[in-house]
Design goal:
The complex is a heterodimer. Chain A has 19 helices and 19 strands. By secondary structure, chain A is α+β, with helices and mostly antiparallel strands. Chain A has 3 domains: 53 residues, no CATH class; 237 residues, D-Maltodextrin-Binding Protein, domain 2; 220 residues, Dipeptide-binding Protein, Domain 3 (Dipeptide-binding Protein, domain 3, Roll), CATH 3.10.105. In chain A, the strands form 5 sheets. In chain A, strands 11, 12, 13, 14, 15, 16 and 17 form a 7-stranded mixed β-sheet that branches. In chain A, strands 1-10-9-8 form a 4-stranded mixed β-sheet, covered by helices on one side. The longest helix of chain A has 24 residues. Chain B is an all-alpha fold. Chain B is built from 14 helices and no strands. The N and C termini of chain B lie close together (7 Å). In chain B, 44% of the residues are buried. Classes of the chains: A alpha+beta, B mainly alpha. Chains A and B meet through helix 1, helix 2, strand 10, helix 10 and helix 16 of A and helix 2, helix 3, helix 5, helix 6 and helix 7 of B.
Chain lengths: 572, 335
């Protein structure tokens, strides 16, 4: 449009001389050009943005100007900071910052240990006595020294509170009052009732075996709350590198360095930590791309990771975890042939590539970095001919309907179900997908309704162990005691041989016996009498700014951080 | 007359609250989920869940639970939230002002712009002003609020980086001393202009997004009302008497045209103050909308009931204000 034409157009518009056709044409043009402009802005080079846009968004984020502050996000509030009751990843972000276990898993290993509150330890040859030497210079956040008595009392508190992860300790040490002795101020001795080769693995768990300041228990206990659980839910006092400054369920958590912590930060280490609560995925992505946060773990979609990786401006770290995903079978309403048939019918390749973007390794319920993993275990592949034969044998041949219930808030679950539906349709079997809200899904998992009232399949389900122990991974999910609210055995799986061999594994006094028992269990629950369709071992992805150093993620500490280990590289 | 109206409405409010509390209580118990299980997580044992249910009083008979709740609520105790593990009253004190602050500014902006724009659009029908006004109305009504919020955030934070991504204040920045709990107001009352500016910056995007939708409705209502009134005989008479156009429009036409708009404004402010959770989620805004959605997904009975009652009170009070305004706008109306 020339200048004269534009002037004429504006004159016509101001005097109301435009006809409807002209208005529609101009409006359409404006609409299309708006979309085009938006697309161009999205592709605009950094020079297009306001000055300082490549740096942190520092308008009103006073703290962001401070390079010794580490920021990350979680998508929900931390409602329980008590390390002896918290059983969530969000809570573990706080407990790992403020408290310490005696030992921790070393680096990315799930079999080796690093000292933490204990500077050294020994295990007797018969795995019945474990002795830990506590650091003499360990102090709590209130400045008081941590002694071996605090360790014993903390373990007693964990056991007697009987909340959350107490079984992590009491499976091995059911009576800490008598089984733990403290010969001196820095020595703690755990005496097992039988050989417990996995005790150290449990002591390195980030769920449960933390040492708390018992003075706070004494100062804040009440008749109704003899272990001061209410106080510890919102406050913290441990020997960990950071103190809890604030925990706001709307805004997030702030931690600050414990100035009397026994350890030292690396050069460029973080004296402050901010954990923001950001529920929206798109906002989280913008924050990491804009430098508003330093690190984000497993809180974006696969498409986001791919796009960020392609841009190349941030570090994209992918690593294996101990988490396994599967779809649960209803053991009561699906005969064994039907379950095997469904396992053959599942579209594994499409799911692994399309849904998980190849971040899944095909395994059973025990991943390759957990004790009890069997590298020779049977792995189903997609075979529609076998599936058809078995489904017919199981009474679910052509024309029948099978039901699956998925969580409506999980896009992955819905997509997996749709892909499965397409495969079963080729066999003339209808897969009826019901997407329900999370609360209803939870009720299906844990409610008291009989198996006959539940769908044939429920998924996706994910689980990882509290510590490196295949028994711990399987017990809540495949023992009958875990059905109907007793655990996560939503399918009411109940195989007598599995029950027996799991008992053998639980009581095993050496690792070979444990692994032999679990090998038998895996053969049954994967193939002979399938409990689920096992998709496999999941990888997690962490995105970090390129200036963040020493990032390392252990497969057992999912979504958790050791803030004291990280550092920010000096600006060049 | 006003006093009689207020008394009647307040009595009505009490009835509404009882009715709503009963309905919400019943519906929340019908949801097939166990709040104790949701609170403790999937790894908790059955024994732990049962213990928690006892602690929360969930094993008591339903009538007993309802009576206990109502009795406590009448004493200002809305119980404990199972999702935040704090008293619900504490949560409401934190979340409600966030929504009120955002909603009030959105309302003020949409009204201050919408009414004059609607009037100008009607008076200068089929001119550029009218086309702009109609464009604003149509886009404001057609564009989904979550899309608008995401695009706004993408543009002003993601690309231009001239506004913060969300929240009321950056984490680590202390809010002003709580007087009204509206951060902009409290920081001005404290004389802390720097904090005022920070909290204002954080308000800009969510308020813009909310105001845009509300503005569309107000503009459209005012325009429609004015067009109808401007064709009336008494307006023609007023012009024939030689009155200035400004006087005809503002004194004679606008007052009558505003009647349906005032009703809509009452609804709008009710909607804005009851929390638009999509905007609050996208901008990580700690408001009542986000709090209620969290409560529903976690089957947090006490929080669900409290937020429902709060929203009911807001709507009933807003309707009362609208009805009182009618008395001033139209002397023919009496209650």
């Amino acid at each position: 449009m020339s200048r004269n034409d534009l002037a004429a157009f504006l004159s016509d518009a101001s005097y109301g001389r435009l006809n409807r056709r002209q208005v529609l044409e101009r409006g359409l043009g404006l609409g299309v050009s708006s979309a085009l402009l938006t697309g161009l802005i999205a592709q605009a080079p950094e020079a297009f943005a306001a000055p300082g846009a490549t740096q942190r968004s520092g308008l009103s984020r006073l703290d962001q100007a401070n390079p010794t502050t580490f920021t990350t996000v979680i998508n929900g509030a931390v409602t329980d900071c008590d390390p002896h009751s918290n059983y969530s990843d969000a809570g573990a972000v706080v407990t790992l910052g403020c408290y310490e276990m005696l030992i921790a898993y070393k680096g990315t290993s799930t079999f080796d240990y690093d000292p933490m509150l204990a500077e050294s330890w020994t295990a007797s040859d018969d795995s019945m006595t474990y002795t830990f030497k506590i650091r003499a210079n360990a102090t709590f956040h209130d400045g008081s020294p941590c002694t071996s008595q605090h360790v014993k009392d903390s373990m007693v508190r964990l056991a007697k509170l009987e909340m959350g992860p107490y079984l992590v300790l009491t499976r091995f040490c059911p009576d800490p009052d008598t089984q733990i002795t403290v010969p001196d101020a820095t020595t703690v001795v755990f005496a097992m009732k039988k050989a417990e080769p996995l005790f150290l693995a449990a002591m390195a768990s980030s769920y449960g075996p933390y040492v708390v300041n018992m003075a706070q228990v004494e100062a804040n206990k009440t008749d109704d709350d003899p272990w001061a659980h209410n106080w510890f839910q919102s406050k913290a006092d441990g020997t960990g590198p950071y103190k809890l400054v604030s925990n706001d369920p709307a805004d997030g958590v702030t931690l600050a360095l414990h100035d009397k912590w026994w350890g030292t930060l690396p050069e460029g280490g973080f004296t402050d930590v901010q954990i923001r609560i950001v529920p929206e995925n798109a906002t989280r992505r913008q924050l990491i791309e804009n430098g508003g946060i330093d690190v984000i773990t497993n809180d974006l979609t696969q498409a986001d990771y791919a796009a960020i990786k392609q841009e190349g401006k941030l570090n994209v770290i992918t690593y294996p975890t101990t988490r396994a995903d599967w779809i649960i079978f209803n053991y009561v309403t699906l005969p064994v042939e039907a379950r095997q048939g469904l396992a053959w019918a599942f579209p594994y390749d499409d799911v692994v590539q399309g849904v998980y973007a190849n971040t899944v390794k095909r395994t059973g319920p025990i991943t390759d970095n957990v004790r009890g993993y069997d590298p020779d275990e049977f792995i189903f592949t997609t075979d529609l001919d076998q599936a058809k034969t078995l489904l017919e044998k199981g009474g679910f041949g052509e024309g029948s309907t099978i039901t699956i219930q998925v969580d409506a808030s999980s896009e992955n679950s819905k997509t997996v179900a749709s892909l499965f539906q397409a495969n079963l349709a080729q066999l003339g079997v209808t897969l009826d997908i019901t997407a329900v809200d999370s609360a209803t899904q939870d009720d299906t998992m844990y409610g008291d309704a009989p198996a006959e009232d539940k769908p044939h399949m429920v998924g996706l389900w994910a689980w990882w162990p509290d510590y490196n122990d295949g028994w711990n991974q399987l017990a809540p999910n495949f023992l009958i005691s875990g059905a109907g609210g007793g655990g996560s055995n939503a399918g009411f799986y109940n195989n007598p041989t599995v029950e027996g061999r799991m008992k053998d594994a639980e009581l095993a006094t050496d690792e070979d016996s444990l692994e032999a028992a679990l090998k038998d269990v895996l053969q049954i629950i994967i193939h002979d009498d399938p409990a689920a369709i096992f998709i496999g071992q999941v990888e997690y992805t962490t995105i970090a700014g390129k200036d963040i150093q020493n990032l390392e993620f252990n497969p057992l500490y999912l979504d958790q951080f050791f803030f004291n280990r990280y550092a920010r590289a000096a600006a060049s | 007359m006003i006093v009689r109206l207020i008394v009647r409405r307040l009595l009505f409010l009490v009835l509404v609250m009882f009715g709503l509390s009963l309905i919400t209580f019943t519906l929340s118990r019908v949801i097939p989920a166990d709040p104790a299980r949701l609170m403790l997580g999937p790894r908790a044992s059955k024994a732990q869940v049962d213990k928690q249910r006892d602690k929360l009083g969930l094993n008591d008979p339903y009538p007993r639970q309802y009576v206990d709740y109502v009795w406590d609520a009448l004493h200002g105790d809305f119980g404990m939230s199972t999702s935040t593990r704090r008293p619900v009253a504490t949560d409401l004190r934190q979340y409600l002002p966030g929504t009120i602050e955002m909603g009030l500014y959105a309302f003020i902006i949409s009204t201050l712009i919408g009414i004059p724009l609607g009037v100008a659009s009607a008076v200068r029908r089929d001119t550029l002003v009218d086309h702009i006004s109609r464009f604003v109305s149509i886009t404001g009504l057609a564009l989904p609020v979550f899309w608008l919020a995401l695009m706004t955030q993408f543009l002003f934070y993601g690309k231009l980086n001239i506004l913060p991504d969300g929240q009321r204040l950056p984490i680590g920045v202390d809010p002003p001393r709580p007087i009204t709990r509206l951060y902009t107001v409290d920081s001005l009352l404290e004389g802390n202009f720097h904090l005022f500016w920070i909290s204002a910056q954080h308000l800009i995007m969510p308020v813009m997004v909310l105001a845009y939708g509300s503005l569309a409705v107000v503009t459209r209502m005012v325009r429609g009302g004015m067009l109808e009134v401007l064709n009336q005989d008494y307006i023609r008479t007023a012009r024939a008497k030689g009155l200035a156009n400004k006087v005809v429009v503002n004194r004679h036409a606008l007052k009558n045209a505003l009647l349906p708009t005032v009703t809509q404004l009452g609804l709008q402010i009710g909607l804005l103050l009851s929390g638009t959770f999509l905007v609050e989620i996208i901008f990580s805004w700690p408001g009542i909308g986000r709090y209620s959605v969290d409560a529903i997904t976690k089957v947090d009975y006490n929080a669900i009931m409290a937020t429902t009652l709060i929203v009911a009170v807001i709507f009933v009070l807003m309707n009362l204000v609208v009805d009182i305004l009618y008395l001033f706008l139209d002397p023919r109306i009496s209650y």
